[in-house]
From TrEMBL:
It comes from Pundamilia nyererei. Its EC number is 4.1.3.3. Pyruvate binds at residues 56, 219. GO terms for biological process: N-acetylneuraminate catabolic process. It holds the Pfam family DHDPS. It catalyses: aceneuramate = aldehydo-N-acetyl-D-mannosamine + pyruvate. The active site is at residues 147, 177. Its main location: cytoplasm. GO terms for cellular component: cytoplasm. This is N-acetylneuraminate lyase. It comes from the Eukaryota. Pathway: Amino-sugar metabolism; N-acetylneuraminate degradation. Keywords: Carbohydrate metabolism, Cytoplasm, Lyase, Schiff base.
Length: 309
């Protein structure tokens, strides 16, 4: 297959669900759930974009081949249903990352995102920019996003510094998925980017602060099951109803802080999603541990009390 330009290089806005990877009880990826998962996100949550093979999707615990199969199925099943499928292609190895970037172009993903390599870490923003440039060269027509998540990668470059002039070396650069709490850096990114780029925020529990700063959308794990509420938060913010926007944000903070006290990792999050959505996304993959049923149940009960039907 030849590398195709994306159907439309549309600005990425609104809510983007960072998807879980469906896994069977035998530990294999389970492609059969992806179609129903897309329908659920669209119909029950009003979420029309997905970010696949990211942190929530346990990408770093998947093989390159598994990531290709998953990306392909997400793109195939999302066609005509989702607005955009962004495929995270970051790996520890530049070669693997380039291979996945090239593959994402072949399967006509709407964009790719790349985290900083985190075993041998880039020593500066310049080095990271060079790494990203090498990745983008494998898929030069595909909208490209830098995925900033210092709490996981340990790479805490100043994003404003990283993106300064980046379009000269990565013409396909379209923005940043910013999972960090440095609102000064976030604001400085937003204030310097061209209008067709997007900055998407990645800390669901403090999205409202980022909306005030001017983010164009949000990528997160909780939008898999609180997307319908967060869509209302965004609408309230856009119409200037800050009281309503805060009320919803505070509810999400209450849920997330309750979950964090019980140990809110991808395994717990995934089980909560299973319980709330009725989908069977299975267990996580080692080293992430499956969630004890009682823990997920306690968080679900908290969810039910915060968001009664
Ligand atoms: C560190 C982490 O996993 N952050 C999540 C958040 O959605 C997070 O689960 C949420 O804010 C609750 O803390 C996302 O930013 C991750 C994400 O978008 C991804 O799966 O790639």
């Amino acid at each position: 297959m030849s590398i195709m330009a994306p159907a439309a290089d549309k600005k990425l806005t609104g809510l983007v669900a960072a998807t879980f990877t469906p896994i069977t009880s035998q530990g294999e990826i389970n492609l059969s759930v992806i179609g129903p998962y897309i329908d659920y996100l669209k119909e029950k949550q009003g979420v029309n974009n997905v970010f696949v093979n990211g942190t929530t999707g346990e990408s770093m615990s998947l093989s390159v081949e598994e990531r290709k199969l998953l990306a392909e199925e997400w793109c195939r099943k999302a066609k005509g249903k989702m607005d955009q499928v962004i495929v995270h292609v970051g790996c520890l190895s530049l070669k693997d990352t380039q291979e996945l970037a090239h593959h994402a172009a072949q399967i006509e993903a709407d964009g790719i995102a790349v985290i900083a390599p985190s075993f041998f870490k880039p020593s500066s923003a310049d080095v990271l920019r060079t790494f990203l440039q090498e990745v983008a060269s494998a898929a030069p027509t595909l909208p490209f996003y830098y995925y900033h998540i210092p709490s996981v990668t340990g790479v805490n470059v100043n994003v404003r510094e990283l993106i300064e002039g980046i379009e000269k070396v990565i013409p396909s650069f379209r923005g940043v998925k910013f999972t960090g709490s440095d609102l000064m850096d976030l604001g400085q990114c937003i204030s310097c980017i061209p209008p067709h780029w997007s900055v998407l925020y990645g800390m669901d529990e403090q999205l409202l602060g980022a909306l005030v700063m001017g983010v164009h959308g949000a990528v997160g794990s909780t939008y898999n099951y609180v997307g319908c509420h967060v869509n209302k938060l965004i609408s309230a913010f856009e119409t200037g109803d800050l009281v309503q926007a805060r009320t919803i944000q505070f509810k999400i903070q209450e849920l997330v802080s309750f979950a964090i006290k019980l140990g809110f990792d991808v395994g717990v999050n995934k089980q909560l999603m299973n319980d709330l959505s009725g989908l069977d996304l299975g267990p996580p993959r080692l080293p992430v541990m499956a969630c004890p049923a009682a823990r997920a149940l306690a968080i679900k009960q908290k969810y039910d009390s915060i968001f009664p039907e």
